[in-house]
Specification:
The protein has 11 helices and 7 strands. The protein is an alpha/beta fold and about 260 residues long. The protein folds into 2 domains: about 170 residues, HUPs (Rossmann fold), CATH 3.40.50.620; about 70 residues, no CATH class. It is globular.
């Protein structure tokens, strides 16, 4: 039997991908592999379990490195960024690659990602795409939601609601993704401004973590034609004083699709 492993994040896309895989191939040898960063939003953990049970019984498998992103940054001596994605590489890609190598045979295993048609460039984009990354490691990867019938995220949310599921609160709160509790070192200023507005307690927690780290900042301020570090504390103070930021500067992580092995 072919083993089928869905890289399961708890987001609506990975649930929809898992549903398609189960509908097309059944539940035999199906694993929804969740790499836990230990800082996900509590409502994501709730949806994660309920949605996995909706796909099928006993298909969810949680694995973890045992460290949060901030613990990892301290161990590595730097905060990850858009160019050096320590957290998504070590806590997700490396971790899941190790699990695959120890538990599956590339000859009869298919790896599935939750990327949809609007993110097809993350799946097929030369050497940086997920398909190439997995192929270089000997695995065959597919992205069911990049194929017809094409669904938008609102379509997937409506599908989940029809199944009796309540998606995690991130989507109702206007987040572009539901990773790491709303925190992401690849996110832009607009994303963090939104995090401050919707989850101020989460924002302040990461603000303090960044201040305690002391060496680097997550964000860069490119206003005025020059690029300079921008701390989360400075961004919060700017916003609280009525300052303006680019709310379209969202960014965000593609945990299983970016970086090469």
């Amino acid at each position: 039997m072919t083993a089928r492993v869905v890289m399961y994040s708890g987001g609506i896309g990975s649930w929809a991908a898992a549903k398609r895989v189960a509908e097309q191939h059944g539940l035999v040898d199906l694993t929804l592999l969740f790499c836990d960063t230990l800082i996900e939003d509590r409502d994501l953990y709730r949806f994660l379990g309920e949605a996995a049970e909706n796909v099928g019984p006993d298909v969810l498998l949680r694995i973890t490195d045992g460290r949060t992103p901030w613990q990892l940054f301290h161990d590595e001596g730097m905060i990850a960024n858009t160019r050096v994605d320590l957290c998504s590489r070590i806590l997700k890609r490396d971790l899941s690659d190790k699990w695959l190598a120890e538990n599956c045979d590339p000859a009869d295993t298919v790896v599935y990602l939750g990327l949809d048609w609007s993110e097809a460039h993350r799946f097929d984009s030369g050497t940086r795409g997920a398909r190439h990354r997995y192929a270089a490691l000997g695995w065959h990867a597919e992205a069911p939601m990049t194929e017809p019938p094409y669904l938008t995220k609102p379509d997937m949310i409506a599908w989940a609601l029809d199944e009796g599921l309540q998606p995690s609160r991130a989507y109702a709160q206007g987040f572009a993704h539901d990773n790491c509790g709303g925190f992401c070192v690849k996110a832009g200023i607009g994303h963090f401004a939104h995090l401050l507005r919707t989850r101020p307690e989460v924002y302040r927690e990461h603000e303090q973590q960044e201040a305690d780290f002391g060496k680097h900042t997550i964000l860069r301020d490119r206003s005025g034609g020059t690029t300079k570090p921008l701390s989360l504390r400075a961004l919060r103070q700017r916003l609280e004083a009525g300052g303006q930021v680019d709310m379209f500067d969202i960014g965000g992580c593609g945990c299983f699709s970016e970086g090469t092995p």
